[in-house]
Design brief:
5 helices; alpha/beta; about 120 residues
Length: about 120
């Protein structure tokens, strides 16, 4: 078991499903991450925000899991957003071109303000 076990919680803010990620995003995160995505998408939110504030580590398998979420989001015509990435992981997302396929924001407040379907973006 990894030193910092992965957990994911789902909440809804301003019409956006927010998945709060904590711990290490690696092979051990697969089941919890996919369950959280399924819960988040069950409310038909047009947009899902991955909040990385509590993430300590992401390896290549974790990147692949995020790519899998992108594929699910595209299939269901949802936008996938990210916030709270450290400078290092922001660079990783840019190098791997994940940043080309999901909007990245420095924090949850700015992500929610710009999310399609959110109360603020629609006003």
């Amino acid at each position: 078991m990894p030193a910092n076990r992965f957990e994911a919680g789902v909440r809804h803010q301003q019409g956006v499903a927010v998945i709060d990620l904590r711990g290490e995003v690696d092979a051990f995160a697969d089941e919890a991450l996919n369950a959280a995505y399924a819960e988040a998408s069950s409310r038909d939110s047009a947009c899902i925000l991955l909040n990385f504030d509590g993430v300590d580590y992401i390896n290549s398998t974790g990147i692949a899991l995020i790519v899998g979420l992108l594929a699910q989001a595209r299939t269901s015509h949802r936008r996938l957003l990210a916030c709270g990435l450290s400078d290092h992981y922001l660079e990783v997302f840019q190098i791997t071109r994940l940043a080309d396929f999901l909007s990245i924001f420095p924090d949850e407040v700015s992500a929610l303000a710009n999310a399609p379907g959110s109360a603020e973006a629609d006003s």
